[in-house]
Design brief:
Aspartate Aminotransferase, domain 1, 13% strand, binds ligand PM9, 41% helix, 17 helices
Amino acid sequence: MEKRSWAEPYKIKMVELLKMTTLEERKKAIVDAGLNTFLLKSEDVYIDLLTDSGVGAMSDRQWAGIMMGDEAYAGSRNFYHMHDTIEEYYSYKYTVPTHQGRGAENILSQIMISEGDFVPGNMYFTTTRLHQEIAGGHFVDVIIDEAHIPDSEHPFKGNVDFIKLNKLVDEVGAEKIPYICIATCVNMAGGQPISLENLKQVRAWCDKYGIMLVHDMTRVAENAYFIQQREEGYQDKSVKEIVYEICALTDAATMSAKKDAIVNIGGFLAMNDKRLYEKACELVVVYEGLHTYGGMAGRDMEAMAIGIKESVQDNHMRARVGQVEYLGKLLDDEGVPVVKPYGGHAIFLNAREILPHIPQKHFPAQALAAALYVESGIRAMERGVVSAGRNQETGENFMPKLELVRLTIPRRVYTQAHMDVTAESVVRVMKNANKVKGLRFTYEPKMLRFFMGRFEEID
Ligand code: PM9
């Protein structure tokens, strides 16, 4: 077969210099950080694969847009540009800007959820579930079982399981379900897409029960790319067309624009219903800012409008996902256990298999992320029992089937050689896996403990 590589559709105009550290410096840095990669100083990190959130490289057009910021308190022209772009590319009629994704989740949860409600979703996300719980709701996982199996090759692990969804309605009644929250390219499952076929069925299910369909569209373009590559009937459609089709099936959306829309800060809540929009406007002025900026500067709204247009280009997506796949294949070839199929934004290491001697209660993924940093200065993120947190009612730890370390690739930032170095480092850590020790908390925050929790090794 003819080979076509995924080279980037851009060239590099400016570079950010990195500090190289010694092994001794890294050992000290990780202990100072309580063995939590979130608490490392960025300047002590060589290749930063903590997250793809707010860390993408903006284009020359986006930087030019920054200079066009209209910093009026009210009615900035950049807001209208962003608003119109969201309607044109994502279909939603009304947009309420927020400082980032969780700002939108807070407002939506406060409006929609009453004490004792249930919110089904295709796997939890940390901030999303917390806002649902703060509003008095309970999250219910309705993703297909394959999503919890790291080496299942199901092409659409983000799909909804209707047996689980129907069981929930039978048990609690449709009136206790204010909405269903569907994420595109499900983060905690390993960046796994939902198919359009499944999403259309969710739409029909919502119509049948009169339940609203909310879209966590943080990584919608990556999901659209996978649909183009994998779902029958979509090979000739552009990512842009598929993105629009996905959004048009849903009633409202929360967006962390720091991911797919390639901006350093920003998000929004968008919807088609005017009443919901009016309620959201009432709350945005309390928590975020006026309804025409919601916590963002004019320049940031401009960068977002431009970023949205760039994010749905087929060439961009091919290179974006191509780079993630490139890292996945390197690791796979070396026998490193990773979540399959490869995700859209990250490669997830299966810490259970890499560190079989550490039981889940001693946080193998947290320990693996710390060990990788010490080995080479690469910063990854735990996505296992620490991230899952505790059941707010029983106080027990959630014990997720997936105990993963996420190597998250920022958009348009690192080169193929950085991916090579990353894969080599993971292999070296794996070869010395028996030296990695389990951990315990020395400080455990009550909420979102993965951000600021501190740990020590258990001898
Ligand atoms: N995701 C990530 O690194 C950043 C914070 S959590 C470590 O993956 C989804 C699917 C997300 C997400 C953030 C948010 C919240 C909502 N939904 O971070 O508030 O992946 O902009 O968005 C992170 P904000």
